[in-house]
Amino acid sequence: MKIDLHSHTYYSDGLLSPKELIQRALNMQVDVLAITDHDTISGIAEARDAVKESTKPGKPPRLEIIAGVEISTSWHNFDIHILGLNVDINDQTFLSRLAEQSQRRDERALQINEKLEKAGVHGVLDKAQKLAGKGQITRAHFARAMVELQAVKDADSAFKKYLGKGKRAHVKPKWISIEEAISWIHDAGGQAVLAHPGHYDMTTKWLRRLVAQFAEAKGDGMEVIHSHLSPVKRQLLIDLTKEHSLLASSGSDFHFPNRWTELGKNLSLPKNVTPVWSDWTFAQAEALSS
Q1: Which CATH architecture does the domain made up of 97-163 adopt?
Q2: Cα distance between residue 26 and residue 31, in whole Å
Q3: The pTM is what?
Q4: Between β-strands 78-85 and 191-194, what pairing exists: parallel, antiparallel or unpaired?
Q5: How do the domains of the chain map onto residue ranges?
Q6: Closest CA to 141 of 157, 153, 124
Q7: Would you give the distance in Å from CA 24 to the centre of its chain?
Q8: What's the CA gap between 177 and 80, in Å, rounded?
Q9: What is the radius of gyration, based on Cα positions, of the chain?
Q10: CB neighbours of 17 closer than 8 A, spacing ≥ 6?
Q11: Nearest to residue 84, comparing CAs of 30, 43, 47, 37?
């Protein structure tokens, strides 16, 4: 089976609607897809409806959707993301908690805009809000808005000059702790997975500390396969997974079609780790066995 447990729609910083994301996943022959928008589960129901529409009468669905979310946390001045997989999207406590995260995002967006205005970059918030549409407003929307307003040449430049840590319009987020995020996910019936650990701008010493604390806080698993991961870093993540008895996950972290990242591509886990889905029941497998 082709399994991808990390993807985004336009309900956070992805560019595709849930329906468009589903169509692309089907085209890429993905069997299981987790939709993990930042701090929101708003796209899950639409995605599942899109799968139903694409399923022929009397046939099992070609794609199974895992209800997920990517929760933002703060840890020693690092922004660390925790995936919640198989969360209950009808859990009212969980929805209220995610709403708190959304409020923090909105407050941060206002502060970012104030700093941009002081730096002489005007009108960015309105444009960023339009780009975000129904979704959560993120720094990615600010970067895209600045490109459209010709304030910078590309999104990377927006982060390097204004939005990145220590830059003129950077605002330190007030996210929850790793422990809180894990608790939220567990309370909603899900599994907590450390997202893209190979992407954090930290030394190996700090990465080891992060994984150790995540495991100590009863985190369930870690992405050991994700995009733009070197063989050396991948082996380190595999070793850390086994060292701390964590389950292994893999995900493309897909946001939009590009030449570097694709749904379901090159995500096979090595045989010497235990997949996070090892005790899941898949509808396709049930249909084939019946």
Answers
A1: Orthogonal Bundle (1.10)
A2: 8
A3: 0.91
A4: antiparallel
A5: 3-91+174-289, 97-163
A6: 124
A7: 17
A8: 9
A9: 19
A10: 9, 10, 46
A11: 37
Tens-place pLDDT, residues 89-134: 999 999 999 999 999 999 999 999 999 999 999 999 999 999 988 8
Q: Which fold has domain 3-91+174-289?
A: TIM Barrel (3.20.20)
Amino acid at 216: E
Spell out a b/e string for 63-99, using b for 16 or more CB atoms within 10 Å of the CB, else e: bbbbbbbbbbbebeeeebbbbbbbbbbebeebeebbe
Torsion over CA: 29, 24, 156, 76 (sign): negative
Amino acid at 273: V
